[in-house]
Amino acid sequence: MTAGLDRSRWGSDNGSVPIAPLPSGIRICHESFGDTADPTVLLMHGLGSQMLVWEEGLCRLLADTGLHVVRYDHRDSGLSTIFDEDGFDEDGPPGGPSAGRPYDLSDMAADAVALLDHLCLTDAHVVGFSLGGMVAQTMAVEYPGRCRSLVSMGSATGNREFGRPAEATLAAMLVPSPADPVEAVEKELADRRLWASVWHEDDHAREVFAAYRRRSVQPQHAYDRQRGAATILGDREAVLATITVPTRVVHGTADTLIRPPAGERTAAVIPGAEFVLLEGWGHDMAPGGWPILVPAIADHCHAVDRT
């Protein structure tokens, strides 16, 4: 067993974690770590993943720094509400706000705020990775009073001039996933290697994929809706320039999926944002990178709280 697997406990495969029924009718699966009296960090995952990307070991390391950590599944992910192919929630109330229509980053940010309400939390340090970074940015724009600070990780502004995938990465993304489950995992693993951190381990990546599948399989139409949410608003730089909450932008030198210029541009657009470039980090959360990822998040949050 690899070191990464030794430090990884998934914990929520059996669906026993809490489900928050939001006023919209959407149900959000979430899980907390640490002391609720500590400042809260709200962790947002990326496209095609689940809250498990923020592994339990990583969450507990963050909690050990003096933070109350909350991870959750976005709508159309994991154990949260997944709409059917026509955009309807078979288990929810008829005519809900997202029924039968596309949603965007504003809708996803509203989910996060409603989750804070459900948890009786006034605010949180909002930390988003990839698509989650875009949701976090949007929350900082539209709900600044609910954001103690913002950490945008491996993400972008929607301006396509910055951070486009490397050619090999883009080519791999355009190849359809095989119907055979074994072949599909092998493609997933080969793709991951293209944008992975230097700490990537095949065994750990396989365990991540297996944990996702044991818990929930994201249908293609759900994936497509999330991808649409990330792109429907286009270039968001004008609104990002209105962000007033303390912001740190984190990117990795090994990220070939959303390349570092996207992070540099994000930090340039958001007033006063700090840009942190992590050597060797890619577009993943490999456990070998936790010793640099935890301080990248926690140091910013604690510095904001001290001031």
Topology:
Layout: H1 3-6, E1 19-21, E2 27-33, E3 40-44, H2 56-64, E4 68-72, H3 105-118, E5 124-129, H4 131-142, E6 147-153, H5 167-173, H6 181-195, H7 202-215, H8 220-231, H9 237-240, E7 247-252, H10 260-269, E8 274-278, H11 290-306
Parallel strand pairs: 3-4, 3-5, 5-6, 6-7, 7-8
Antiparallel strand pairs: 1-2, 2-4
Helix pairs in contact: 3-4, 6-7
Descriptive key words:
alpha/beta; Rossmann fold; eight-stranded mixed β-sheet; 11 helices; globular; disordered N terminus
Detailed description of the structure:
The protein is α/β, with parallel strands linked by helices. The chain has one domain (3-306): Alpha/Beta hydrolase fold, catalytic domain (Rossmann fold), CATH 3.40.50. The chain is built from eleven helices and eight strands. It has helices at residues 3-6, 56-64, 105-118, 131-142, 167-173, 181-195, 202-215, 220-231, 237-240, 260-269, 290-306, and strands spanning 19-21, 27-33, 40-44, 68-72, 124-129, 147-153, 247-252, 274-278. Strands 1-2-4-3-5-6-7-8 form an eight-stranded mixed sheet, with helices on both faces. The longest helix is centred in the last third of the chain and has 17 residues, at 290-306.
In a nutshell, what does this entry contain?
The protein has 307 residues and is an alpha/beta fold. The protein is 38% helix and 14% strand.
**Order of SSEs:** HEEEHEHEHEHHHHHEHEH
Q: Give the CATH class.
A: Alpha Beta
What portion of the residues fall into strands of 2 or more residues? 5-15%
Low-confidence stretches: 1-10
Fraction of residues in helix = 25-40%
CATH superfamily membership: Alpha/Beta hydrolase fold, catalytic domain
Class by alpha and beta content: alpha/beta
Our count of domains comes out at 1
CATH level-two architecture: 3-Layer(aba) Sandwich
CATH topology: Rossmann fold
Radius of gyration: 18 Å
Sheet having the most strands: 8 strands, mixed
Number of strands: 8
Record the strand order, biggest sheet. Answer: 1-2-4-3-5-6-7-8
Note the gap between the termini: 43 Å
The total count of helices amounts to 11
Shape call: globular
Global mean pLDDT: 91
